[in-house]
Amino acid sequence: MLDPSLVSLTYLDEGAANIVYRISASPSASPTRSSHHESYSRTTPPPSEIDTPPIRPSSSNPFPGQLLRLRKDNATAAVLDSHHHFNNRIAPLLPTANLIQQTLVRASSHLIQKCNAGLRSMEKRGARSPQRAGVYLAEGEAFAVLVTDMSSSNSSSDRDAPVEAETESLSVEFKPKWLAQSPNAPSNGTSRRCRTCALRALRESRGPMPGDEKLLSSSSGFCPLKLMEQDRGIVREVGNRIVELNRIRKEDRGWMEETLFAWLYGNALLARLRTLQVVMDPEGVLMGNLESPDFLTAMTMRDCTLFLRIPRDGGPIEARLGDLDLKAASPKKADYWRRVERQLIDDGWYTAIGRGAAVESEERCQLSQ
Ligand SMILES: O=P(O)(O)O[C@@H]1[C@@H](OP(=O)(O)O)[C@H](OP(=O)(O)O)[C@H](O)[C@H](OP(=O)(O)O)[C@H]1OP(=O)(O)O
Ligand SMILES: Nc1ncnc2c1ncn2[C@@H]1O[C@H](COP(=O)(O)OP(=O)(O)OP(=O)(O)O)[C@@H](O)[C@H]1O
């Protein structure tokens, strides 16, 4: 049970649907913590089904190696549903060692309100991305999850070291997105872009969204099909691009690029992810049953994030997939998927003709090589 009277939360990062916080002992338990951390003081009783990690008040993080992930009020699936979906449908499909682990905890409304006050204050200070502003945590949500912390660390037992300290490992993350072409795209001979590159080109044609620095670090920066290539030069190129997108400092780029290339080339985890995407959705969003559990699982697999923690000493890379959230079978979402696919086909974003020819993306799709 997460006891808010014992913890302080520090904003780490956010995506479209969730916000992730670092956890530390509250100022009363740890007088050295700085005052800008939000702290919480209400205890909620533990629900019986919740796996309860032991609290260690003497540690600076009562849940060592874990972060707290809270749901925003725009997310389509409740935390409990998403967590059960993860346990029952997703986790059995992938090696445990390659998954961001989740532990369900109860989140009091007081804790969430405090976090929302913190978000509003960040907005006032200009410390929150304008793209994310105006959307807050769901105050009616009763649960949150503790997740494996994959951020750069000093050591697995001390993840609270100051950020300016030289880390023992560096982390990179990227969304592998659609590792195979959309089943509904024009046949291979005529497609010049894969689904991810076609959608990126469409979005580029509209111009960048204000304050969207995140666009650089998610799916927009490279062609996912290149990750599946046999050609070493192509895999090296995409690995280097991932290092660049993660804004790794210059002095670390050389060894990171080498290590990342060695990990990416012929990688079994990415191959498995691709297989799941293909097998779970052989018909595509225009032909398939958009409410079927298999189809929704394929969409989850097309929108997850791969986190890699890369040790400086050449030790083994820790690789975990996260953001494997339930995609709800809602008419709104189904409509979005169909609309995007129709537009990519009808306006020539796959074939790079008509409107789709207007954008010459800097990042070339593997299908156009
Ligand atoms: O439609 P896509 O492929 O752009 O994916 C969306 C993501 O955009 P991306 O291209 O990865 O930057 C999008 O990510 P961002 O908003 O860009 O962080 C979401 O992950 C969205 O899923 P949901 O609506 O939160 O369930 C994602 O929507 P789904 O299509 O996976 O439902
Ligand atoms: N387990 C983790 N370890 C380290 N950093 C993490 C972890 N989980 C999330 N983050 C950071 O927080 C960011 C947002 O988290 P997350 O991907 O869970 O949000 P989301 O809203 O589900 O994303 P999306 O926009 O794809 O729906 C990530 O891009 C990453 O930088």
UniProtKB/TrEMBL annotation:
<dbReference type="GO" id="GO:0032958">
    <property type="term" value="P:inositol phosphate biosynthetic process"/>
</dbReference>
<dbReference type="GO" id="GO:0005634">
    <property type="term" value="C:nucleus"/>
</dbReference>
<keyword id="KW-0418">Kinase</keyword>
<dbReference type="GO" id="GO:0035299">
    <property type="term" value="F:inositol-1,3,4,5,6-pentakisphosphate 2-kinase activity"/>
</dbReference>
<keyword id="KW-0067">ATP-binding</keyword>
<comment type="function">
    <text>Has kinase activity and phosphorylates inositol-1,3,4,5,6-pentakisphosphate (Ins(1,3,4,5,6)P5) to produce 1,2,3,4,5,6-hexakisphosphate (InsP6), also known as phytate.</text>
</comment>
<protein>
    <recommendedName>
        <fullName>Inositol-pentakisphosphate 2-kinase</fullName>
        <ecNumber>2.7.1.158</ecNumber>
    </recommendedName>
</protein>
<keyword id="KW-0547">Nucleotide-binding</keyword>
<dbReference type="GO" id="GO:0005524">
    <property type="term" value="F:ATP binding"/>
</dbReference>
<feature type="region of interest" description="Disordered">
    <location>
        <begin position="26"/>
        <end position="64"/>
    </location>
</feature>
<comment type="similarity">
    <text>Belongs to the IPK1 type 1 family.</text>
</comment>
<dbReference type="Pfam" id="PF06090">
    <property type="entry name" value="Ins_P5_2-kin"/>
</dbReference>
<dbReference type="InterPro" id="IPR009286">
    <property type="entry name" value="Ins_P5_2-kin"/>
</dbReference>
<keyword id="KW-0808">Transferase</keyword>
<comment type="function">
    <text>Phosphorylates Ins(1,3,4,5,6)P5 at position 2 to form Ins(1,2,3,4,5,6)P6 (InsP6 or phytate).</text>
</comment>
